[in-house]
Amino acid sequence: MLSLSCKASIKAVVFLGSKLDTDQKFSIREIAKFIDENEHTVAKLLQKLVKENIINSAKGPNGGFYITAKQKNLHVISIVNTIDGEQVFDECGLGLLKCSEFRPCPIHEDFKVVREKFKKICVDKRICDLYEGVNSGLSYLT
Q: Domain 4-136: which topology?
């Protein structure tokens, strides 16, 4: 359902959120290494996230990417909308272009339920909800 870029973006934001209390800023290289993604790809994604004020960046010798206390309360849907767009929740489970209620694919009804549930998760969950599990050791990014 989500693109690989969107998944990488969520991982990057969760990583930054998990480090909020340290007051550290992280380079593209550090983030890419931690989430096991290509640096060039991560750079482009972080740029989009900064532009939409989901994360912040600072230039200079002590610069890097970080998240604020206000941003930690943003909902995951804000990341999804920035990277994939909200239409991702309307796409066919098989990738058909003309799948609809009137012309359904073989898994349309089943996938519709999954898609709606996943959208609810993205709308309900905040960034801090995701990284709290990482910080407590109940969930993992790697």
A: Arc Repressor Mutant, subunit A (1.10.10)
